[in-house]
Amino acid sequence: MIKINSNYRKLQSSYLFVEIAKRVAAFQEANPATDIIKLGIGDVTRALPPSIVSAFEAGVQEMGQDESFRGYGPEQGYAFLREAIAENDYQSRSAQISADEIFVSDGAKCDTGNILEIFDHDIRIAVPDPVYPVYVDTSVMSGRTGTMQDGRYQGLTYLEGSPENGYVPMPTPDLRADIIFLCFPNNPTGAVATREQLAAWVDHAHKTGAIILFDAAYEAFIRNPDIPHSIYEIPGARDVAIEFRSFSKTAGFTGTRCAFTVVPSSLQGVDAEGNTVPLWELWNRRQSTKFNGVSYPVQKAAAAVYTEAGQREVRAQIDYYLENAAIIRSTLQDAGYSVTGGTDSPYIWTTVAGDSWDFFDRLLNEAGVVCTPGTGFGKAGSGCVRISAFNHREKVEEAMRRIRPVLG
Ligand code: MLT
User: Fold this and answer.
1) In terms of DSSP H, where are the helices of 188-278?
2) Yes or no: is domain 53-307 CATH 3.40.640.10?
3) Is residue 246 lining ligand 1, measured as CB closer than 6 Å?
4) pTM: predicted TM-score of the whole model, two decimal places
5) Number of the ligand 1 atom closest to the C-alpha atom of 249
6) Interval 340-395: pLDDT, tens
7) Bridge-partner residues for 262, per DSSP?
């Protein structure tokens, strides 16, 4: 029989959101009359904004005529989109990123997992805890870890978030990692990192030679003007960081699929012979070989995000979710719970009494509301849950009415 990649056998039996979906489906089958309200997975619920739909439609129309039809596009993404990203997301914030350092893709989830391919097998990886599970699971799949012991994988370094550090773990002098995953605004805790905190990480990476993999998928939720949207707003970050962004939460693209990864041309690694190699070259080679780009109409739709109307519309959508987040935050706070997130993030993170899966089950059984148990995000998440603001206003309000008695 064929030998399998045994690293997969080290993984938890199912991906967090698959396990939640299974429990929800079982509950729904047993309680068909209950109108379950989902504040679990961070999936958008509002329709694509009108100017984005128009651009999408125009792209489809172009594909329907010989004169404007396009076959394979550039694997790195069309120039019109890469230029719009460079100008609006970076240069306008004094972050020196150029269009050719941007790689358009179908998701930040895929890219944060796939990026590990361009590094040596024996790299030391540090991940936050609580953590977006993809960083951990893809490290496991690629054989960079041992087995799980006491809730943590051997061989991974965990950067522990806690109420004491506001869920923003900072580098310690003894930290030795080649790859450091950071995510701000954070999934799952909703915490944001200040300029000084990010500068400390950039400084650490410069001193140790580490590469920061910075997941900024939720940057559009930042409303505090003092919080950086990109790690490249920090001087020196170009030489130590790769950044991941997505249109999923920014513009409602979870089902449409478009994201991008920034690999600055100044980032370098070393090969087995001691030669210096730009990481850009490796990622470009990887994408050209394994990826054929995002469809033309989708890239047209993504580019519309940067038009005046697009900016106005996506901002209004995010404001809507942020207002939901404020409702969730105040419900929890009024019930005496301490919360993180929900101001510059769609996620609200709170400590609950007892086990987080038990709390998840109680919320589901007694209120018909779905949250995400903190344990699913790592050991440091036990005793916490994440509530997502992605839903319609009336659903969020109804969910808060229902959970109030369960909160005690
Ligand atoms: C989440 O709920 O954490 C998100 O849906 C994750 C993702 O975007 O993949």
Assistant:
1) 195-208, 248-251
2) yes
3) no
4) 0.97
5) 8
6) 999 999 999 999 988 999 999 999 999 999 999 999 999 999 999 999 999 999 99
7) 102, 243
